[in-house]
Design goal:
MetI-like fold, mainly alpha, 0% strand, 72% helix, 13 helices
Length: 320
């Protein structure tokens, strides 16, 4: 009997497949997952890792800040003394038309919270735009050039950060009067120091890298090196600090409005609403509670998003 036929007969009798059979080769081949299925799984995994709660809250906050005048169930300034101190709609004596109740002048609380988000949004965006731009330029120059300029500006930043923000705002109110511009100026004068110190520390590390030295050898100007080679490498830190400082600015604006140094009436603000409701905290607790909850939820969302961005953009933390 030939050797091939003998091997086939032996494998058939024992129930084993020949080593060279197509079925055996197929069983030993690795399973290949389609690329489309892998990309879909990776996309789904990335979506699950997103901070959905902060993103949804921030999206709603931005939406009502931009279009709040058209989203209010009733006019935020309409007064009706016969409807004053109505409790929330789910409590006894509440009215479904006024979901969160009314204040001491019969104004709808939900409408005033929606419109009041606009002041916090404007102050936060404006103050961070000026403060971050000024602080980033100062930190970039100090970290790159060093020397006496660095020492002078950093000591100035230390003094600015040590000065109480609320006191600075109160002094500005005494000089130029209350308003949105007062709050923006006061917050910007404090925020630039935080950005300057952070960017300076990042630039001190980046300027010693090889690609910066090669750019300097190639004859690139100092301005080009700072803006083209160094600045893009520190933008991640700027984005994270911007997100974290948004919550801080909203709290500052609410604090100044609470003290009467923010946006003056009749424009509703969350801090002003909390202040007006403290007189009636025992009988109409909802006047202070719901604006305070709005402040807390928005600030918490910005802080959570900032923490997520810091962990996601930092390569060292991403490897943990």
């Amino acid at each position: 009997m030939p050797i091939e036929i003998q091997e086939l007969a032996t494998s058939t009798a024992t129930g084993a497949r020949p080593a060279s059979s197509p079925a055996h080769a197929l069983s030993r081949a690795p399973l290949e997952v389609p690329a489309a299925r892998l990309s879909f799984a990776e996309s789904a995994r990335a979506l699950r890792r997103l901070p959905w709660f902060p993103l949804i809250v921030i999206a709603v906050f931005v939406l009502i800040s931009l279009f709040g005048q058209w989203l209010t169930p009733v006019s935020d300034s309409a007064q009706n003394l016969r409807l004053r101190f109505l409790p929330p709609a789910w409590l006894e004596g509440g009215n479904i038309e006024f979901l969160l109740g009314t204040d001491n002048l019969g104004r709808d609380l939900l409408s005033r919270i929606i419109v009041g988000a606009r002041a916090s949004f404007i102050v936060a965006i404006s103050a961070l735009a000026f403060g971050s731009a000024l602080g980033s330029l100062i930190g970039l120059a100090c970290g790159y050039f060093g020397g006496r300029l660095d020492s002078f500006l950093m000591r100035t930043a230390d003094g600015v950060m040590a000065f109480p923000l609320v006191l600075a705002a109160l002094l500005l109110v005494a000089v130029i009067g209350p308003g949105v511009h007062t709050v923006v100026i006061a917050v910007s004068l404090i925020l630039w120091a935080r950005f300057a110190r952070l960017i300076r520390s990042e630039v001190l590390s980046v300027r010693e890298r090889d690609f910066v030295k090669l750019a300097r050898i190639a004859g690139a100007s100092n301005l080009r090196i700072m803006l083209v080679h160094i600045l893009p490498n520190v933008l991640n830190s700027v984005v994270v600090l911007l997100t974290l400082q948004l919550g801080f600015v909203i709290i500052v604006e609410a604090t100044l409005s609470f003290l009467g140094a923010g946006v003056p009436p009749p424009t509703p603000t969350w801090g002003q609403m909390v202040a007006s409701g403290r007189t009636y905290i025992e009988t109409a607790w909802w006047m202070s509670l719901f604006p305070g909850l709005a402040i807390a939820v928005v600030v918490l969302s910005f802080n959570l998003l900032g923490d997520w961005l810091r962990d996601h953009l930092d390569p060292k933390l991403r490897q943990l």
